[in-house]
Design goal:
There is one protein chain. The chain is α/β, with parallel strands linked by helices. It has 2 domains: 6-180, Flavin prenyltransferase-like (Rossmann fold); 189-346, CoaB-like (Rossmann fold), CATH 3.40.50. 32% of the residues lie in helices and 23% in strands. The mean pLDDT is 90.
């Protein structure tokens, strides 16, 4: 997704400036060419040498640098950029951009570019909640700037509150989402299911499987990166919700069926990557079952067949996890459920 993309990474004078090093590193590892612009205040927190080492590119720190490879820097950087990302963005830089001030290289580049601009604010809570800052962010949103975060947590002031730089994974994900707009899946709505459903035995126990949900989450991100509107229906999973993806949380197979039936009529494709439990207890105990006899017998019944139930003109993709007769069983499922495509996974 980020291969051969040119990204201008603007860094401003926040304590969170050190996190920009990881952002730059991940972007470079993903194949992007990263041009870093640092404000005078940012240099007080992190050295430009760090970013030159991480990106293999010169770091722009001055408005006029005759030794630079860029002829007229703000124009060259702005024209070359596929996207401009400012992370962290202080209240000061946000105010200047909202007012159209162009008194440093970063502001000039933003004013000169036609590329999308992503801003990740980072500041003390009172500064973020100040009506002036809130108004400035609203003005930037109205101009199609993408605002990511901030999140809540422990701040440099020693207090807890809203103002932390958004998680790096969310920033990277948002960059991918923005760059994906207009690609081959633009205008399409794709529903992806993920994770292993949990069928309750009693208030503390359930029947499930070993699915991590990683496949479904990765597919949702891939569809997002190609411009699709994505709805992720997920059973419990220890994974971070993908930014730019609509997430619907469910627990049981019945809940997943209801969620799919509610949204599938408006979708172009259903990718059923979830590991739906095949059986569930016929009745879940109201109270915790106490340990008593040496044996416990559970009466099970089949869970609903989600793929076989969903109707419509949408493309249906299924998964077959098999320990034997992989191709034969996958072909049978493909035909039985009327699928357009099936992915056969050998679990041995």
């Amino acid at each position: 997704m980020l291969g051969n993309k040119t990204i201008v990474l603007g860094i401003t004078g926040s304590v969170a400036a050190y996190k920009a090093a990881e952002i730059a590193s991940q972007l470079v590892q993903a194949g992007a060419k990263v041009n870093v612009i640092m404000t005078e205040e940012a240099i007080q927190f992190v050295s430009p040498v760090t970013f030159r080492a991480l990106t293999g590119r010169p770091v722009v720190t001055e408005m006029f640098d005759l030794a630079s490879e860029f002829s007229i820097e703000h124009v060259s950087l702005a024209t070359a950029a596929d996207i401009v990302v400012i992370a962290p963005a202080t209240a000061n830089i946000i105010a200047k951009l909202a007012a159209g001030i162009a008194d440093d290289m970063l502001c000039c580049t933003v004013l000169a570019t036609k590329a999308p601009v992503v801003i990740a604010p980072a500041m003390e809570t009172n500064m973020y909640t100040n009506p002036v800052t809130r108004d400035n962010l609203s003005r930037l949103r109205a101009r199609d700037f993408v605002i990511i975060g901030p999140s809540a947590g422990w701040l440099a002031s020693g207090k807890e509150g809203v103002g932390r730089l958004a998680d790096i994974s969310d920033i990277i994900g948002s960059i991918c989402e923005v760059l994906g707009k207009g690609r081959d899946l633009a205008g399409k709505h794709i529903v992806v299911t993920a994770g292993g459903t949990q069928e309750p035995i009693d208030p503390v126990r359930y029947i499930s499987n070993r699915s991590s949900g990683k496949m479904g989450y990765a597919l949702a991100e891939a569809a997002r990166d190609r411009g699709a509107q994505v709805s992720l229906i997920t059973a419990p999973a220890l994974l971070t919700e993908p930014p730019g993806v609509g997430v619907i949380k469910v627990g049981t197979a019945q809940e997943m069926l209801q969620a799919v039936e509610n949204i599938a009529p408006r979708a172009d494709a259903l990718v059923m990557a979830a590991a739906v439990a095949d059986y569930r207890p016929t009745r879940a105990a109201k109270d915790k079952i106490k340990k008593g006899d040496a044996r416990l017998t559970l009466k099970l019944e089949c869970t609903p067949d989600i793929l076989g139930t969903v109707k419509g003109k949408l493309i249906k993709v299924g998964f077959a996890a098999e320990s034997s007769n992989l191709v034969e069983n996958a072909r049978h499922k493909l035909k039985q459920k009327g699928l357009d495509l099936i992915v056969a996974n050998d679990i041995t």
